[in-house]
Amino acid sequence: MKENNYRILIAEDDKDIIDLLELYLENAGYDVLTAENGLLAWECLEKEKNIDLVIMDIMMPEMNGYQLIRKVREHHNLPVIIISAKTEDSDKILGLDLGADDYIAKPFNPLEVVARVRSNLRRYYHLNDQTTEDDGQLRVGELILDTNSMSLKKGDMDIALTPMEFKILNLLMQNPGKVFTKIQIYQHASGEYIENDENTIMVHMSNLREKIEKDPKMPEYLKTIRGLGYKMEKKQV
């Protein structure tokens, strides 16, 4: 039984890993496409217009995962999950900075990968299809988040968001003044919270501040509540 005919692209140069992921994802009801390097994955993305999520390794021939993420984010707005043997915090932070929505370290449990895929798809496409009673726009200070087009403006300036950044802002701007813990934010954006995902949220919040704040070190919108989490100020300071 297909899960809404979602199509997953796996970019990985290890055939054993491709076979393992393909087996579990197809068993979960997904259509799966595969590419053995970053260049082939990019060509597949350009040719196949209905790919819903990408799983990619970092260390690949022809075009590595970091290069692939950059190209994906220039042209596509879809969830990206990195699965990599590069497990240093700096590697994870770089991947998330470039626009990945999730990062899974090798060796991995294939059932966890399926769970992460399901969570990212559900959160991303549920929000993408959501209906609102008004014009679908959330406004806080100069920020205008359009939940229909999944776009953000600050004044007259368009601000590009990754799917994860959109989901985080959508939650916070719907509830200005309310404090959310890192776990609550992650569960809203990606589903099930897994140990060590706290750093992922910190990276996304830092990236959002770089995009929307005049001075990211003295934020006017995204406030850190020490020992608790984050909140969106009700109006610009």
Helix content: 40-55%
CATH topology of the largest domain: Rossmann fold
User: What is the residue-mean pLDDT, rounded to a whole number?
Assistant: 84
Number of strands: 11
Going by helix content, strand content and strand pairing, the class is alpha/beta
Cα Rg: 18 Å
Number of domains: 2
Question: How far from one another are the termini?
Answer: 51 Å
* Proper CATH architecture of the largest domain: 3-Layer(aba) Sandwich
Keyword list:
19% strand; alpha/beta; Arc Repressor Mutant, subunit A; 5-stranded parallel sheet; 11 strands; Rossmann fold; 2 domains; 237 residues
Textual characterization of the structure:
There is one protein chain. With 237 residues, this protein is of the alpha/beta class. It has two domains: 7-118, Response regulator (Rossmann fold, 3-Layer(aba) Sandwich), CATH 3.40.50.2300; 137-232, Arc Repressor Mutant, subunit A (Orthogonal Bundle). 42% of the residues lie in helices and 19% in strands. The chain has eight helices and eleven strands. It has a five-stranded parallel beta sheet, with helices on both faces. Strands 6-7-8-9 form a four-stranded antiparallel beta sheet, with helices on one face. A two-stranded antiparallel ribbon has the order 10-11.
